[in-house]
Amino acid sequence: MKFGNKLFTLMLAAAEAHARWEIESSLDILQNRKKLLTLLAFCLPIFAYIGAAWAAPDILGGKEAYAPAFYSTSVFLVSVLIGLAAGLITGCIGAGGGFVITPALMSMGVKGILAVGTDLFHIFAKAIMGTVIHRKLGNVSGKLALAFVVGSTGGVVVGGTLNRAIYEFNPVLSDLFISLVYVFLLGFLGIYSMMDFLRLWRAGRAHRTLAPEEQRAAAPVLATTTGLAQKLQSLQIPPMITFDENLVPGGNRISGVFVALCGALVGLVAAIMGVGGGFLTFPMFVYMLGVSSFTTVGTDILQIIYTGGFAAISQYAIYGFIFYTLAMGLLLGSLVGIQIGALTTNVVKGMYIRGFFAITIIAGFLDRLFALPRKLSQMEIIPISTEITKVLDLIGTIVFFAIMAGFGFWVFFMFFKNINKLRGMESPTQPGVKGA
Questions:
Q1: Which of 161, 358, 355, 159 has its CA nearest to residue 275?
Q2: For position 306, what pLDDT does the model report?
Q3: Is the separation of the CB atoms in 24 and 429 below 8 Å?
Q4: What is the β-pairing status of strands 252-255 and 240-243?
Q5: Number of domains in the chain
Q6: What dihedral angle (degrees, nearest 10) is formed by the CA atoms of 205, 210, 214, 216?
Q7: pLDDT digit string (tens) for 170-199?
Q8: pLDDT tens digit string along 132-183?
Q9: What is the DSSP letter of 225?
Q10: How far is CA 211 from the centre of its chain?
């Protein structure tokens, strides 16, 4: 249980670091007229199609243009809403927004492999448009980053190849595989986030996300060298990498082989799930390698940009497994949602935010869990009637989108209720919750 709590804390820290970068990247896009116009220019063909769908059946997002995607106006609009919800979660909660995108797309009927590729492309598109990087990189070790991306490259290739091979063998098995991965991940995060919320609720105080300065002060706690890290650092396997020179006299040293292996695992998971994989970087760097949280933040952001881009292009885009109209919808929605969510944190109690975080993660878990019987039945693994599996699948989808909609309405209500108070406020670059 103690290890589970520690792992959850580190995974949450990684998700919060990613959210901070997303918020600043979104601000950079929205406050830059040229970038905003460029984004709108990319979306013009989509808007033109909405206005004259009957006249242009094969343009961006049509059946012939990007098989196996099928475009409709309603699908695009729903993708905007999904991006909006994910953005609200990222901006308001400070973590977890990316976890709900792939399950949400699959609930809409998008193939799992297509949802994964689209999510990765959406992450990459936001990364290349936003240039706010240097202020959030922290104490980056170039050697650590290089060894890590060497490993993540291999992991991405293996993960993408595995996803495509399973899909080519049996598309239903592909959806089952991706759903199972999300069930285990979101189940773990959901249980521990709910425990975290209940602990805070019993204590009668709000959780407050650490400011950057406080994170640096807390770095020695998160960077405490574990027994496993000491053992790995004692193994002199070339090439040896020195890191944390600014935090530890003379720095610490570890074999680049172990760093590359961590990168390979992150790349594998990212390519399979359609997420940046940063939620794994923190626990592995801090717990296994003994890297400080300050250095880990920078490396994590760099690897998310590289891993997301490499996976999206090399493993999904060139094989036709990216739904570009959905990706643009996700990007548009998330840009707006992140800003509103980040502002709303100024007027809500932290404990409520933590509660919604736990509920949304559990909603994603239930959505994929209730979808499993239908996939297992289609694979003829369990004997269950089609009618029952459809009902279970529908229940999971309704519960998932109802919770997401409820969260969204609550955030918008709090935003407009306090609009006068928020007027003139700058969007916080630090997500999460302000005081109790």
A1: 159
A2: 82
A3: yes
A4: antiparallel
A5: 1
A6: 140
A7: 989 999 999 999 998 888 888 877 887 787
A8: 444 445 556 778 888 988 999 999 999 999 999 999 999 899 999 999 999 9
A9: P
A10: 21
- Domain limits at 79? 2-422
Asked whether the beta carbons of 161 and 315 are under 8 A apart, the reply is yes
Cβ neighbours around 231 below 10 Å, total: 11
Say if residues 264 and 152 touch (Cβ distance below 8 Å): yes
Q: How far apart are CA 209 and CA 413, in angstroms?
A: 23
- pLDDT, one tens digit per residue, over 185-237 is 888 888 877 887 787 777 765 444 444 344 334 434 344 566 778 888 888 88
Q: Which amino acid is at 135?
A: R
Count the neighbouring beta carbons within 10 Å of the beta carbon of residue 423. Answer: 8
> What is the pTM assigned to this prediction?
0.76
Asked if the structure places residue 436 within a domain, the reply is no
Domain membership of residue 175 (yes or no) is yes
- The size of the chain, in residues, is 436
What are the tokens at 184?
Answer: 């285990």
**Does any domain span residue 142?**
yes
Distance, in Å, from the CA atom of 407 to the CA atom of 415, rounded to the nearest integer, reads 12
Any domain includes 435: no
- Closest to 403 in 3D by CA, of 429, 430, 370, 365: 365
For residues 373 and 235, give the distance between their C-alpha atoms in angstroms, rounded to a whole number. 47
Backbone angles phi, psi at 253, to 5 degrees: -130, 140
Q: What is the overall mean pLDDT for the chain?
A: 75
